[in-house]
Amino acid sequence: MLFKEIIGQEKIKERLLQTVMENRVSHAQLFFGGEGRGKLSIAIAYAQFINCRDQEKFIRKDSCGLCPSCIKYDKLIHPDLHFVFPVAANKEVKEKPLSQNFMAQWREMLIENHYFPSLNDWYDKIDIERKQAGINVHDSNQIIRTLSYTSYESEYKVMIIWMVEKLNYQAAPKLLKIIEEPPDKTLFLLITENPDNIIPTILSRTQLVKFPKIEDNVLIGACETQLEIGHNQAVEISRVANGNFKEAMRLAGQKDERNEVFEKFVGWMRMCYTLDVPKMTAFSETMGRESRESIKGFLLSGMEVLRNCLVLNYTSPELIKIRGSELDFMKKFSPFINGNNAEKFSEEFNQAIYHIGRNANTGLVLFDLSLTVAKLLKIKAPVSVK
Ligand SMILES: [Zn+2]
């Protein structure tokens, strides 16, 4: 991970670079701040920079990304880079769970989340429950064992402890001594979202590095480039995400889901309009196999589209919040939803939702509704709508 690959936090990057250049890397540091601010990715980039073998790095102010050390760091397989994080027993690891038992999933999870993981992402990944997870005494014994060996390949051994507030009370005392007096050339990078939950004896042994919220303009840029969303949506998402890139990712994901539902609805309306019975049958069967809740959700979203189409007949597009491809479709489709059929649409959709909620055969209900929609779409608008 290179510094330049991580969004924002320029002041922190600069400050960390300085510590290396001036040869005053503090052996135990605590990176703290809210979710989605890049603490873990910057910790990895910092450790990589310290161990990068290319001397040009000081001029470039970043790791080279090409030396043997950087390549192993990039894959998170460097033998002197260690991670500890909350774990618990699961189906595969039944006893004495250790972080190193979960390294493969850890690497996968980081990549899947653009190196901005949340605790929930992690618990989902290894299929454990929140209440059981912690950094346990087995792991703190393991940390001591690992760090007692001399480093294999690099100058510094690095131990990154993610969500150190999850360190349980038997595990903590074992770590105190080694954090206070670590073996030579050992670097502890502790990461937390809640410094208030960390025991004071650990807090007092670390140098604190506070991570502020990511600035709005940086977040907007990252939404556009990394999450591939348009500028207007990126602005909207950044306003809600409030400096938290993780939250921006979640919001962008929701948009994806919304688009998928919308596309499905558009496809359905087209087959009804052209009275394409084979497609209507296939649609009803496929959709009918989804859960009742998700079918109801689909129909409710559809009703919203129909309602917006009706509104669009009587008002200008600026007054409804829909933009982009949704608006394009609705401009074309809205003439088919009018004062003569809107109420009937609403009745029929509500009826279908009612029956689906009451154990009716979902495929049949959807097929009946498709035929009704086909009929309703042929009803012409009253004269002079606009
Ligand atoms: Zn390098």
Written description of the protein model:
This protein is an alpha/beta fold and about 375 residues long. It folds into 2 domains: about 5-210, Rossmann fold, CATH 3.40.50; about 260-375, Zinc Finger, Delta Prime, domain 3 (Up-down Bundle), CATH 1.20.272. The chain has 17 helices and 5 strands. The chain has helices at about 10-20, 40-50, 55-60, 70-75, 105-110, 120-125, 135-150, 170-180, 200-205, 215-225, 230-240, 245-275, 275-290, 290-315, 325-335, 340-355, 360-375; strands spanning about 30, 80-85, 155-160, 185-190, 205-210. The chain has a 5-stranded parallel sheet with strand order 2-3-4-1-5, sandwiched between helices. Strand 3 (about 155-160), helix 8 and strand 4 form a beta-alpha-beta unit. The longest helix is centred in the last third of the chain and has 29 residues, at about 245-275. The model has no long low-confidence stretch (mean pLDDT about 90). Zinc ion (ZN) binds next to helix 4.
Write the topology of this structure.
Blueprint: H1 10-21, E1 28-32, H2 39-51, H3 57-60, H4 68-74, E2 81-84, H5 103-112, H6 119-126, H7 137-148, E3 157-162, H8 171-180, E4 186-192, H9 200-203, E5 207-210, H10 216-225, H11 231-241, H12 245-273, H13 277-288, H14 292-314, H15 324-333, H16 342-356, H17 362-376
Parallel strand pairs: 1-4, 1-5, 2-3, 3-4
Helix pairs in contact: 1-2, 2-4, 7-8, 10-11, 11-12, 12-17, 13-17, 14-16, 16-17
Bound molecules: zinc ion.
The site of zinc ion has 8 residues, from α4.
